[in-house]
Amino acid sequence: MLKIDELTGGYGTSQVLFGMSFAAQAGEAVSLVGRNGMGKTTTVRMLMGMLPTRGGQMALQGRSLTKLAPHAVARLGVGLVPEGRHIFGSLSVEENLVATARSVPGRTSWPLARVLTLFPRLQERRRQSARTLSGGEQQMLAVGRALMTNPLLLVLDEATEGLAPLIRQEIWNCLRAVKQEGMTIVVIDKNLGEMASLLDRHHVVEKGRVVWSGTPAELQQKPDLAHRYLGI
Ligand SMILES: Nc1ncnc2c1ncn2[C@@H]1O[C@H](COP(=O)(O)OP(=O)(O)O)[C@@H](O)[C@H]1O
Ligand SMILES: [Mg+2]
């Protein structure tokens, strides 16, 4: 589904990515994990067409994303839950969702009703303005907004940051449900243990490239690796 191959680039004269490579098969959930400042968000910005690449290739279902503008990447089927929530506080929950809705012929699998079924808290609050939601609910709304674009690939950048453990669990449960529907997912998050039951594969990022990849069970057998690259 997704292939990221030897990406390089950064900001001005500062190079951040040094040959970033990873892939996700259709229906898989994979992570990018690693300490702050290692280039995970930079990778997401390049994937979404928000930051130019200097080298390397990116493809979705074999179609190149490498030189595409953000709207074209979204149209091909990449949905992003960005770092920070980026919802419209003055709009209602439902208006926030409808604002990103994109029906795709043959692929409209996430109409409003289905997103609201996935998140009953959003259903209950659909007429409230988004700013009245709790942090966890706002994050659910951000996930719902990404689903409303009917993506083939869902990318979540620190979606559980700042949330209480029980709320994080709700987010993971929803993502498991979305995965069961066949969604391919790339998740960037610090909560390794909590993601274990969602993920097929971790990619450990260090200084702008993947230095290790393996299953959550394999990572658990490598405490030295977790300590060295993840600081845990
Ligand atoms: N807009 C920017 N301009 C300049 N440098 C940036 C910018 N965004 C991030 N960086 C730098 O790029 C490096 C990687 O950052 P980032 O991709 O955000 O890391 P991560 O998401 O893994 O924490 C860091 O050194 C960070 O300071
Ligand atoms: Mg980041």
Characteristic key phrases:
232 residues, alpha/beta, Rossmann fold, four-stranded antiparallel β-sheet, four-stranded parallel β-sheet, binds adenosine-5'-diphosphate, binds magnesium ion
Which helices and strands occur, and which strands form pairs?
Blueprint lengths: L1 E10 L2 E11 L4 E4 L7 H8 L7 E6 L2 E2 L5 H7 L1 E4 L11 H7 L12 H7 L1 H5 L10 H13 L5 E5 L7 H16 L3 E5 L3 H4 L6 E5 L2 E6 L1 H5 L2 H8 L2
Parallel strand pairs: 3-8, 6-7, 7-8
Antiparallel strand pairs: 1-2, 1-4, 4-5, 9-10
The site of magnesium ion has 5 residues, from α1.
Structural commentary:
The chain has 232 residues and is an alpha/beta fold. It has one domain (2-230): P-loop containing nucleotide triphosphate hydrolases (Rossmann fold), CATH 3.40.50. Helix content is 34%, strand content 25%. It is built from ten helices and ten strands. The chain has helices at residues 40-47, 70-76, 93-99, 112-118, 120-124, 135-147, 165-180, 192-195, 216-220, 223-230; strands spanning 2-11, 14-24, 29-32, 55-60, 63-64, 78-81, 153-157, 184-188, 202-206, 209-214. The strands form three sheets. The protein has a four-stranded antiparallel beta sheet with strand order 2-1-4-5, with helices on one face. Strands 3-8-7-6 form a four-stranded parallel beta sheet, with helices on both faces. It has a two-stranded antiparallel sheet with strand order 9-10. Strand 4 (55-60) and strand 5 (63-64) form a beta hairpin. The longest helix has 16 residues, at 165-180. The protein is globular, with a radius of gyration of 17 Å. It binds adenosine-5'-diphosphate and magnesium ion. Adenosine-5'-diphosphate is lined by residues 11, 14, 16, 34, 36-42.
